[in-house]
Design goal:
Two copies of one chain form a homodimer. Chain A has about 450 residues and is an alpha/beta fold. Helix content of chain A is about 65%, strand content about 5%. In chain A, helix 8 packs across helix 10, helix 15 crosses helix 16 and helix 16 packs parallel to helix 23. Chains A, B: Homodimer. Chains A, B: Belongs to the SLC41A transporter family.
C-alpha cells in the first residue's frame, strides 16, 4: 500500500535535521539522509544555512552525490563542488546523464573540470566534451545523447526482441527514433504505439512522421515553449544535416520553465536569479549594491528635479509634503503595465502587429485611473490642506502622470527588448525614473505657476 | 525529412494574419488557420486584440475548438466561450480529456455549464461531474480518469495481447497501474519495463512498488513540486481508501508551474495573473485601481509623516529636496530581500528552522550596503549642498533605513504567510510603506534635531 504523502513531513525533516546538526547528533543525521531520495537531500541542502551544508554533505552517501548535484541550483552547487576533489567528482558523475554531467562541469574552474574529465573513461569523456561544446542555453546544451534508434523496415516483434536483449531503456524514454542508414531522423515510434500494434506490422507503417524536430542551436526558451504547447514528454534533436544527435526530456525543460519564470520575478526586484537563499553575506552585498547604485542615480535624478523648484519649496512646506504622492502613484500604475508587457513579451504575445493596440489600451487605462485618482486625491488635498488650488494642482499632476505611466509602461520594455536589454531587469527602474521625473516636474511646475 | 523549426515564423504568421484581418482577406486567414496546430491558434488568439479574436474564432474549424479552449488562459477563454451556444460548446468538448472539459466548464456561468452537460452522453457527463466535484487547485481537479489498469498475477505477453486489443492508449501514458480486486493501487509498470521484459515474466515481479502516490486532496502546487523533484511524467492519484481514481500528467503540471511562477511576478506588481494582455479597458482599469487604492493609503501615510515635520521643511528647502532619497534606497534594498524570501517560501526552502539564520544574513547585508551608501550619499550631499551636518544626517538615515529594510524584507513575507496572506501580493507594498515611514522619520527627525 502506498503511503499518502505528507507535505508537512518535508518541513519536519528539515527542522529535525537542523536541530540534530546543532546538537552534534551526526549518527541521527546520517540515518535520516540514508532514508531520503537524492532530490530531497538537494532540497534540504538548499534550505540549509551554509555551515550546516558542509556537515550534511560530509554525512551524505557519496553514491548519491551525482544525483544531488544535478538537482541543486547553480550557486548552491558551486558552493558544494568547490570543496570536492576532482577524483570524488569524477566518481560522482558515474551513471549520470551526459547533459547533467556537462551541467555540473560547466560551473567549475577550467583546471578542476579538466581534472574531472581526465578521470573519466574515453567514451564517457568524448560524450561529455561533445555536450560541453554546445552553448548552455541551447537545445545542444539541454540534450542527452542516449537516444534509442531503430530502422523503419523491421517489424514490431523484432523491435520487442531487440529491446528485451537491451534489457533497459534510458530514463523518460517514451519514443524510439526511426533513422535511415545515415542516422537521419525519419520518424518517431512512441512506446504506446509499439505496445498496441500487432507484432507483424512494419515500423514505417505505424510511426509518426518526424515533421517537427528541434535543431541543436535552438534557444532553450524556444525549446521550452514548444514543449509547453505541444505537450511533449521528449523530443529529438537534429543537426543541420538532419542527423539525429540527441533528445531532450521534459524534466530538463521544466527546469528551464521554472528558471525563466523566476528570472522575471527576481530581475524585476533587481536580484540575480542564481542567488542562493543562504549566499555568503559579502558576495550578496556586493551583487545587490550594483542595483542600489543604479537606484542612486534614479533617486538623484528625482532630487535634482525638485532642486529646480527650491524657491517654490521654500515658500510652501505643504508642497514638499504632498510632492511624493504623484510619483508614487505613477510608479505603481506604470509597474502594473510593465509586468503585463514583460509577461506578454516572454510568452511571445507581443509583436510589431499588436504594439499599437496595446499602447492605446494601456493609455486608456492610465487615463481612466488617472481621472479616478485625480478626483479622489484632489479632494483629499482640498480637505486636508484647505486649499482648492493645491487640490486642483494635485489632480492635474495625478492625471498627467498616470497617463504617462501607461504609455511609458508599454514603450519602455518594448524599446529595451529591441535594444537587447533584458526588460525584466531594467524595465521597472527606467519606468520609475520617468514617472518620478514627470510627476515631480508637473506637480512642482504647476505649483510654481499657480501658487507662488 | 523534418523541417527545422523557425521561431520567427510564428511572429511572421501573427503579423500576416492580423494584416489580413484588417484588410478583410478572410479566405487567406481561413487557409492559414487550417494549416496551424490548435495550440498555435490558441497562441495567435492570445496575441490578438479583442476585435480580431472574434473574426479568428469565426474562421476557425469548429473541430479544433476543444483543443484550442484547453490551451487558452482563463480570461481569454472566458472571452471566447461567452459568445458560444451550449450545443456548440458540448460538441467542442467531444474527444477532450475529462480534466480539460472540467477546466472549460468551471469558468462558465452555472446555467450555461448545465446546458453543456445536458448535451453530453450519460457516461461522459458523469465523468465530468466527478471531475467538477474536486476543487480546481487540488490533485482531483488536475487529474484525468483515463487510467489503464492491469492485474499483478499475469504475464508480460498477456498484457501485450490485451493492449493490442485495446489498440490505443490515452495520451502521455508512460505507466500502467497495477491494482488489486478492490481497485487499490499496488504498483506501477512503466512501458519501458514492459517492452524490455521477457514475455513470460509476471507483472508483480517486474513492477515498481507504489510507495508514493498523490491523494485527491493534495494541493496543486505540492503536486507540481513533487513532479519537479521526482522527474515524473505521470503519477497515479488515490483516494483515502488507497483506491486508484485517476492520474496526473506532466503537461497539466507544467501549466501549474508556469502559473505559480507568473503569479509571483504579476502579484508583486499588483496585477491579477489571469489578466489577458488585451483585456477590456474598463475591466482592467477597475481591477488595477484596487491596488492603486492600497498605494494611496501608503503614499498618504508617508505624506503624513512628512507633515509632522512641516516647520522643519518650511525652514530648509534642501531637506525637502533630499528627503525622497532615503525611502527610495530603502524600498529597493528591501524589495531585493522580499523577492529572495518569496522565492524561498514558494520553493519550500524557508521554514522555522532557518528563519533566524536568514534574518541575521539579510540584516548583515543591509548593514554592509547601508555603510557603503551612507558614505557615498553622505559625501554627495556634503559636496552638493556644501553642508557637512546635512551630509551626516543623510548618512545616518541611509544606514538605519537599509538595515531596517533587510530585517523587514525577511520578516514581512514570513509574517504575511503565517497570516495566510499571499506574500507575493502584499509583501512589496507593506515593505515600501515601512521603508518610506522609517526613512522619512529618521531623516526628517535628525534634520529637525540638528539643523533647525
Amino acid at each position: 500500500m502506498p503511503e499518502q504523502l505528507e507535505f508537512d513531513q518535508a518541513h519536519q525533516t528539515l527542522q529535525d535535521v537542523s536541530e540534530a546538526i546543532d546538537q552534534g547528533r551526526f549518527v541521527f543525521v546520517r540515518r535520516q539522509l540514508q532514508d531520503m531520495e537524492p532530490e530531497d537531500i538537494a532540497q534540504l541542502l538548499e534550505a540549509s544555512p551554509r555551515k550546516s551544508r558542509d556537515v550534511l554533505w560530509q554525512l551524505t552517501d557519496p553514491e548519491d552525490y551525482g544525483d544531488i548535484l544535478d538537482e541543486l541550483s547553480e550557486d548552491v552547487k558551486d558552493d558544494v563542488v568547490a570543496k570536492m576533489a576532482p577524483e570524488t567528482l569524477a566518481e560522482a558523475t558515474e551513471g549520470m546523464d551526459t547533459d547533467d554531467i556537462a551541467y555540473v562541469l560547466r560551473s567549475l574552474p577550467d583546471d578542476v573540470s579538466r581534472g574531472v574529465l581526465a578521470q573519466m573513461d574515453t567514451a564517457d569523456r568524448l560524450r561529455v566534451e561533445t555536450a560541453l561544446s554546445y552553448p548552455e542555453d541551447t537545445a545542444g546544451g539541454l540534450m542527452n545523447t542516449d537516444v534509442t534508434t531503430i530502422r523503419g523496415d523491421v517489424e514490431v516483434d523484432v523491435i520487442l526482441r531487440y529491446l528485451r536483449i537491451k534489457a533497459e531503456l534510458p530514463e523518460a524514454t517514451d519514443t524510439l527514433y526511426v533513422v535511415d542508414q545515415e542516422n537521419r531522423l525519419i520518424g518517431n515510434l512512441s512506446l504506446t504505439t509499439l505496445v498496441t500494434s500487432q507484432p507483424d506490422k512494419q515500423v514505417i507503417d505505424i510511426m509518426d512522421d518526424a515533421d517537427e524536430a528541434i535543431t541543436v542551436d535552438t534557444k532553450d526558451s524556444d525549446v521550452a515553449s514548444l514543449f509547453e504547447r505541444r505537450n511533449w514528454v521528449s523530443a529529438p534533436v537534429i543537426d543541420d544535416n538532419q542527423t539525429l544527435v540527441g533528445r531532450i526530456t521534459i524534466d530538463d525543460v521544466v527546469d528551464v520553465i521554472r528558471e525563466d519564470a523566476e528570472h522575471s520575478m527576481m530581475s524585476m526586484a533587481g536580484m540575480d536569479d542564481d542567488e542562493d537563499t543562504f549566499a555568503p553575506v559579502i558576495k550578496s552585498a556586493r551583487r545587490r549594491s550594483v542595483w542600489l547604485g543604479v537606484n542612486v542615480l534614479a533617486a538623484l535624478t528625482a532630487a535634482s528635479v525638485s532642486n529646480m523648484f527650491e524657491s517654490t519649496l521654500e515658500q510652501m512646506a505643504a508642497i514638499a509634503i504632498l510632492m511624493t504622492i504623484v510619483p508614487s502613484m505613477g510608479g505603481v500604475a506604470g509597474n502594473q503595465t510593465v509586468a503585463l508587457v514583460i509577461r506578454g513579451l516572454a510568452l511571445g504575445h507581443i509583436g510589431d502587429s499588436n504594439q499599437k493596440e496595446l499602447l492605446r489600451k494601456e493609455a486608456a487605462i492610465g487615463f481612466l485611473n488617472g481621472i479616478l485618482w485625480a478626483i479622489i486625491l484632489g479632494g483629499i488635498v482640498m480637505l486636508w490642506k484647505e486649499d482648492i488650488v493645491l487640490g486642483l494642482i494635485m489632480s492635474g499632476a495625478m492625471l498627467t502622470n498616470l497617463f504617462v505611466a501607461g504609455i511609458a509602461g508599454v514603450s519602455i520594455p518594448i524599446i529595451l527588448k529591441k535594444m537587447d536589454i533584458d526588460p525584466a531587469l531594467a524595465g521597472g527602474m527606467a519606468l520609475t525614473t520617468i514617472t518620478d521625473v514627470i510627476g515631480l516636474l508637473v506637480f512642482l511646475g504647476l505649483a510654481t505657476v499657480f501658487l507662488v
